[in-house]
Amino acid sequence: MPELKFDKTKCAECKAISCLVKCQYMDFKDRDRAKKEWQKVINGDNSSVLEACTTCYACEEYCPFGNHPFYMLVERQEEKGILPAPRPIIKMWINQCQPVGRFIVGKVEEKALSYCFLPQFNTLVKGKLFDGIALSVIFGQEFFCNAVYLHYAKASVIKDRLPKIVENIKSQGIKELVCLHDECYGTFTSLAPAYGIDIPFKPIHYYEYMYNRLKELKDLIKPLNIKAAYQRNCSARLCPETDHYVDDIFGLIGVERVKREYDRDNALCCAETIRMAKGPAMADDLQKKNIDDMVKFGAKYCVFNCPACYDSLAEKVAKAGIDPIHMIDLCRLALGEERGQKLHLEGMPVLRAAMEDRQYE
Ligand code: SF4
Ligand code: SF4
Q1: 70 touches ligand 2 (CB under 6 Å)
Q2: Buried-most residue among 4, 5, 70, 212 (CB within 10 A)?
Q3: pTM as predicted
Q4: pLDDT in tens, 203-253
Q5: What is the CA(69)–ligand 2 centre distance, in A?
């Protein structure tokens, strides 16, 4: 099994202990206390951190030394059998995502799109943004990045499956892989190197792909002139270096990213994994705080990166009078195209009235 590259001496010398001090779900403002508790995690002792962690991934971003505190935490949770979700849910995920040799591919070229294991991309990948690449697609459990098991204290499943997944992708002759789910991108650029797993193709974040494509199509762009809240997802914490593309894309298509409290490194995740791990009260409270914040800062749209966040939050966001939209659809609107993903509004007359003056169809 690949082993996590983790440098204990970095933590011993670290003064900030940002991994715990910045955690939004635990109160570790006292750095000395944070240091002691984190040392317990590293040393394999019992620690309240292992129980309290919501698996939001954020400490991967907070550590200024790239020392992978969250991956370490998941290793320790698994060693001690501290499961952040009910056992049957974990079992279900492990079984349903197991690679079984049934490849679902399009007309795969050297440059391909990865849908990960998210069929929602079928409705999103359309139009000029994807001219020439739309059919070069891989999808399903043979190509599933498996990072989701970070939420379930099952690093062993990732370590077992990821090398096979990488081999499956390589076997398709793919040289450049545009990852439409940034959990895949984060897996190939953060998780895999942290475990010493080689990636024999070039992962490209779809934001980078879309930014470059939009520049090619700039004469067709009609600025949207809207204010939008950005919903930053858990896996964005594995690749924070890509966040500037949100600003770059918004700049190209005339979208103002509202400067709200729960964005950038203070983002709140969609809270659906928290619902499984910690129950509905905490998840509902977090979602309310997040959506209230979007309303407070005058957002008219909520832009999603992750289709799973969209599934969790879109209806709730819409009920607050904000138009939920995936980043791909937002770019398509700016190109004068129709959005692919549509929220079913039947039975929501109040919402329908609230959104009458929007571009929603
Ligand atoms: S994981 Fe990073 S932030 Fe946390 S103590 Fe170690 S070096 Fe510091
Ligand atoms: S994953 Fe999130 S909740 Fe868990 S320790 Fe890191 S920052 Fe805190």
Answers
A1: yes
A2: 70
A3: 0.94
A4: 999 999 999 999 999 999 999 999 999 999 999 999 999 999 999 999 999
A5: 9
